[in-house]
Amino acid sequence: MTNFIQTYDDVISKQFCDQLIAMFEESPEHHEEIFLEGHRSFTQVTLQQHAAWRPFAIELQNVFDQYISRYMEDCNVTNKMFPQQYSYEMFRMKRYLPNDIDEFSDHVDVGNLDSARRFLVFFLYLAENKRGFTDFPQYNIRVVPKAGRMTMFPPLWPWLHAGVKPIDKPKYIIGSYLHYV
């Protein structure tokens, strides 16, 4: 099961990461506060909902497209195993502050009929951080945040994971999912 958790470095440049972070910080009017006490707390921007972010979403989709075939190869997934048609969920950039509150505790990303279209997740990290890693507790795997690093895995029940609280500076990630169509 761990072979379906794949991590790739240098997916985008540090310069592009810094540009995305600066845009996030300069666009508070686009921020959505997400909070469910004891489970998840962060601030996000849904890229496709704002004209200024759409060029970034297009560029990121091109990057994600490039890594789908690599992921399939690395996981020994054949074309017969993988949907021939799919779509992307809207891209969300999230910021977790080092405030001892922001986190996304243990969860899976498919938990009901509304989310059942998801079959592959992308997490793209935009900055280094102490702690703030993505933890897969059942597999003893921790993906440490690093600018340009991307993790891909199925968002289903065997891949319980958590976004651990950052402790030294904000953690920034961009996430999306492939959907069945």
Features:
181 residues, Jelly Rolls, 12 strands, globular
- What is the straight-line distance between the termini? 25 Å
Q: Main beta sheet: strand number and arrangement?
A: 12 strands, antiparallel
Tell me the Rg in angstroms.
Answer: 15 Å
Poorly predicted residue ranges? none
CATH architecture: Sandwich
Order of helices and strands: EHEEHEEEEEEEEE
Give the mean pLDDT: 96
- Which fold does the CATH topology refer to? Jelly Rolls
Shape: globular
Query: What is the percentage of strand-forming residues?
Result: 25-35%
Q: For the record, what CATH class applies?
A: Mainly Beta
- The number of domains is 1
CATH superfamily: q2cbj1_9rhob like domain
- Class computed from helices, strands and strand pairing: alpha+beta
Q: State the helicity in percent bands.
A: 10-25%
